[in-house]
Every structure is written in C-alpha cells, then in structure tokens.
UniProtKB/TrEMBL annotation:
Keywords: Cell shape, Membrane, Transmembrane, Transmembrane helix. It is found in: Membrane. One of its GO terms (molecular function) is lipid-linked peptidoglycan transporter activity. One of its GO terms (cellular component) is plasma membrane. The chain crosses the membrane at residues 12-29, 41-59, 65-85, 106-122, 128-147, 159-192, 275-295, 307-332, 344-364. GO terms for biological process: cell division; regulation of cell shape. It comes from Blautia liquoris. It is a multi-pass membrane protein. This is Rod shape-determining protein RodA.
Length: 385
C-alpha cells in the first residue's frame, strides 16, 4: 500500500496553490461569518493532513476494492434517503452525535475512483453495447438516489463528470455524436415541459428558480432573483481593489446581509466586494491552475485509471467552480453549489482534499515510475472511431 516514492515527483506547485486558495477561503468565510472562521481553518488543516496521508497510499492498491467502494457509495446514499436530516425542504445530510456531513460530496470522489477502475478494466471493449449499458446502469443508481434527496445540481454535476470520464477512457466519436443528437432534443422537450406545464417533473423551488432566470422581467419571480441581483451589485461595488476584508461600510452587501449564504453559495460575491476585480481574478487563476495541474498529471499517469482519477478531479473542481461563479454573477439560475476550497463546508472541503491526495499519488507514480512505462498505452486514440 505504501511505497518508496521519489520526492522530486511530488507536485509541490499543486500543494502551494491549494494552500493559497484555501487560505483565501478562510479569510473570506471569516469575513462572511466570523463564527465559522475557526471551523474553516481547522477544516483546511485537517484536509491538508488527509491529503498528505492519501497521497502516500498506492492508488492502484485502493482501486482493487472498487466494487466495495461502489457498494459503500450506494449504502451512504440509501441512508440519506431513509434517515437523512431535512433542511430547507431537502434531505441531504446525516447527523451523528451533533456532527453533520453531506454524503453526496464524498460520493463524488468514490464514483470517480470506481469508474477509474471499472473503465480501465473495460478499456478494450468500452465501445461495445454491453459495456455502455453496464456503465449507464451503474451511474443511474446513484443519480436516482441523489435526485430523490432532492439535489438536482449534484445530479447534473455527477452526470457531466461521468460523461467526461467516458470520453477520456476512449468512447467512440460515433457514439458521442449519436448521444448528442438524442440528448439535446430531450433537454429542449424537458425545459418546455417544466416551463409550460404543471407536471411535477422537479420540485417547485427548483422550477421557480429556472422560471425566474428565463422570465426575469416577470414580477412574480422577483424574490427568486433578488439574491443574485444583490450578489452582482456586491461584486461590482468592489471595483478594482475591493473594499477590504472585514470592512464596516454600511453599503456592504456582505455586512448588510443582503446576500444570503454568503459564506457558502455566494462566497464569490464576498470576494468580489472585498477583494475587488484583482482578488476575484486571483481566485480564478488559482482554480485554473489546480485544474491544469490535475490534467497535466493525468497525461503522465502510469495507466488509464490514474488518468481518469486526475481528469475526474479536474472536472469536479472546474464544474463546481464554474457553476458557483455563474450563479453569483447571474449567468445560471440560483443553485447552492460551493466554490471549491473556498466556501464553508467541511464535508466538501475534506472530500476535495482526499481527491487531491489521490491526484498527487498518481503524480508520484508517473510513467517513469518502475513498471509504469510497461503498463500504460494510449489506446483511447485507437478506439475513437
């Protein structure tokens, strides 16, 4: 499980960027809600320790238990559906002696690990009907359980990550093209059914948020848009250099509580207002750097499973970061997605750090690692057509 690694293969650039963005997160969370800053700091320290431990564990050894990982993932989601604690109309949390955590955040990492091994095992027959059906069936079970919580954003996030993993594994362009031709009309029909009928396809609050985005000028949905409008105002008010952390300006959207969940869903509004355009760009560059390093290490992985772990984590950080910022800037309907490594939430933070630990271990076992050059071939390019 533990091996002798070469220290020069440890990606300290990624570690430095993770520490930097998490430090900014601690400052921003403390500004949004001072009572949570200590917890966030403890979460970052604990996350870094978890990342270090996982980074020294052989990811290939861990993936040998991929069916146990999948079973654990399903078990956690079933527990949430049956015994999860409710908050704001959704049952997404498990309470254990006063400690609350959201299993869906952990399940994202578990699913990336599972499909990294499953798809590598089926690399040679990935484009066969049987493998595609098995893959869809395996992802459908957790997606249905997550959708029942209800948690539409994470359902869509995991579905997109699954599609990216299938593409990276070598899914044929013919199958991808045929799927797109089928999926796009289905999405259009689904949106028409949601917006033009009263069919109970999604929950009412989810429908209202979508309707508010499409019919933004309708006074009926003004309440659903107010948070995003206040967020946009806060970001714009920061101008180039921002108002400064923990400022006491009366007009502050953060201090004035004009933006709800500013420590989590709208943390980018706090960054825009208090750190300005410069600080917001710094956050974006750090996120981009983390995603880039994950992809770069994936390209040097010793086998396909390592590549899929790195690309899966890169996709998770990129998708969640994009959604969070798109919501804060009014591009997407309001949905509660945390900004990776910045928003408050220990379950999300620790899960991401565990995932980054796996990425770092993949980097330690690159193609120059003993045995790596013999185990990995770029078969994906051969199986595209």
């Amino acid at each position: 499980m533990l091996k002798r690694y070469k220290i020069r293969n440890y990606n300290f650039r990624l570690v430095i960027m993770l520490v930097a963005i998490s430090s900014l997160g601690v400052l921003l969370v403390g500004s949004a809600d001072p009572t949570l800053q200590r917890k966030q700091l403890i979460g970052v320290i604990g996350g870094l320790i978890l990342m270090l431990i996982v980074s020294l564990m052989d990811f290939s050894w861990l993936l040998n238990f991929y069916w146990i990982i999948y079973a654990l993932n399903i078990a956690l989601l079933i527990i949430v559906v049956l015994m999860g604690s409710s908050k704001k109309g959704a049952s997404r949390w498990i309470q254990i002696r006063g400690f609350q955590f959201q299993p869906t955040e952990v399940c994202k990492i578990l699913l990336i690990m599972f499909f990294a091994m499953f798809l590598m095992k089926h690399e040679d027959d990935l484009n066969t009907f049987r493998t595609i059906v098995e893959s869809l069936a395996l992802i459908a079970v957790p997606l249905i359980l997550i959708a029942k919580q209800p948690d539409l954003k994470n359902t869509l996030t995991i579905a997109v990550i699954f599609c990216i993993l299938m593409y990276v594994a070598g899914l044929s362009y013919k199958i991808i093209g045929g799927t797109i031709l089928v999926v796009i009309p289905l999405i259009v029909v689904l949106l028409l059914l949601i917006t033009q009928t009263d069919l109970p396809i999604i929950n009412n609050y989810q429908k209202n948020r979508i309707m508010a985005k499409i019919f933004s000028e309708d006074a009926e949905y003004s309440d659903d848009l107010r948070q995003q409008e206040n967020s946009i105002t806060a970001i714009g008010s920061g101008q180039l250099g921002g108002k400064g952390l923990n400022n006491n300006e009366v007009s502050s959207a953060n201090k004035g509580k004009f933006v709800a969940e500013s420590q989590n869903d709208f943390i980018f509004a706090v960054a825009g207002e208090e750190l300005g355009f410069a600080g917001s760009c710094t956050l974006l560059l750090l996120l981009f750097g983390i995603v880039f390093e994950c992809i770069r290490m994936g390209g040097r992985a010793k086998d396909l499973s390592g590549t899929l772990i790195c690309c899966g984590m890169a996709s998770l950080v990129a998708i969640q970061g994009f959604i969070n910022i798109a919501v804060a800037t009014g591009l997407f309907p309001n949905t509660g997605t945390p900004l990776p490594f910045v928003s408050y939430g220990l379950t999300s933070l620790w899960s991401l750090y565990i995932g980054m630990g796996l990425v770092l271990n993949v980097g330690l076992q690159n193609r120059t690692y003993p045995g790596g050059e013999k185990r990995y071939e770029y078969r994906a390019y051969r199986t595209r057509y």
